[in-house]
Amino acid sequence: MKSSALITVTTQDLQGHAATPSTEDPRWQLVQKIVSSRNFVKSSFLSSFLLYVCDRELRGRTEEITEYQIGIQAFGRPASYNPGDDNVVRNYARLLRKRLDEYFETEGKDEVVRVTIPRGRYIPVFSANVPTQTIADHSESWLLPPETSDNLGGNDHEAVSSSVATENSRQSVRSSAQWSIAVIAILAICFGYFEGRFFTPHIATAPSHLLWSQIFNKDRDTLVVPADSGFGILQNLSGRPFRLGDYANGTYLSNIGPISGVDSRNLNDIGTQRYTSVVDLNIAVSLSHRPELTPEHFFIRYARDLRMEDLKHSNAIFLGSLHSNPWVELFQKDLNFVLEYRPEVDNSVVLNRHPQKGESEIYKNAWDDDSRLTYAVLALVPSLDGKGYVILLEGLNMAATQAAADFLLNEQAMNPVLKNARRLDGTLLPFELLLETTSIAANSPEVRMIAARYGSG
User: Fold this and answer.
1) Are strands 221-225 and 314-319 parallel, antiparallel or unpaired?
2) Domain of 180?
3) Are residues 95 and 187 in the same domain?
4) Cα–Cα dist 258/209, whole Å
5) Is the whole-model pTM more than 0.85?
6) What residues have CB less than 8 Å from 338, skipping those under 6 apart?
7) Does a structural domain hold residue 242?
8) Is residue 113 part of a domain?
9) Do residues 403 and 321 both lie within one domain?
10) Better pLDDT: 139 or 102
11) Rounded Cα distance, 280 and 214, in Å
């Protein structure tokens, strides 16, 4: 059984309370089985969350099951943790509910007891785990003939005959209903076949389906991570860049110091509020409409709320460059096309580490001529565990990021790329695309690929 997830022992535990629930309690035994299951063993955060709330519930200490306490005890947040600024508990609560449902539909379908986390609260509820078929059988029990009883009085033969006649009648009704349902089902299947055969595209044979069926893998979560625009603004105002380590632990906020012309309240607002672009939101919405998407495994996670634990066993799509989405740093070390931050606004560049014939070493925004050219990188790289994929959509500005998304979602544009990247076993090689577009009022009217690399990452 999984025992690595931490349950904090407070001084109150030493004052007359048992340190842990009884190991003989079937509810606690169930919780231990759940955190050892396939969907939980990969996530120490989910396991810690479930163990903490169930521990407090089974010990009668539900007053400690609050968002603030869960953040501190299960997620290791400091005492200064503010749930209003950091919604990690709410994000994981949604995922926890889904994982519990999946457990009782698969590995735990034969469990006697079921545990749920009702929406709008975090206190777990233990109840009988009634199999779906049992519920269905019970719901149809009204169709069965009533039991005859010796103390009903009257003619027993007539009572039995009446019961049989009633049952025969009901069987006739059920038989007719079943035939009707069967005919409707056959017609529906035929209609679906012909509609799919003659009227719908063959999605499964399209090259784009190869990509999206692996990005939206039903056995993995897929995280879409919009940029933290406030983080980019702070770097521009302070004139200094911050690395992922500073961003992930929040130390960049205390290291910025005073900025000329910006009062402390506005500076704090920029650093703590969740600002992102409409471009990123539109991209996230477009991705959510892909037919290959599995809703229960699709999550939009703001960059500042993301944790390394989230990425260990997940696919991801990052929107924005290192300047506003520092998590990109994890995947850039082996890339050829890399966005480099410059302190001046709109002066970042794309570095071409190994230029090929006809390529430049540096690509930057062309603000000084009428072309208004800007650049983006679209890359497919392995996930952190090497079992999935991560997509990077990095632009020198919002128009360029939009261009990268437009190219990614354009099947005609992506078909040649995906054909070149396809392995014999149907999986995809990592690839990088350097894209060029024109920025007009932060929009990209058209986009073209000017360079590509396959097999990197």
Assistant:
1) parallel
2) 164-200
3) no
4) 50
5) no
6) 332, 350, 351, 353, 377
7) no
8) yes
9) yes
10) 102
11) 22
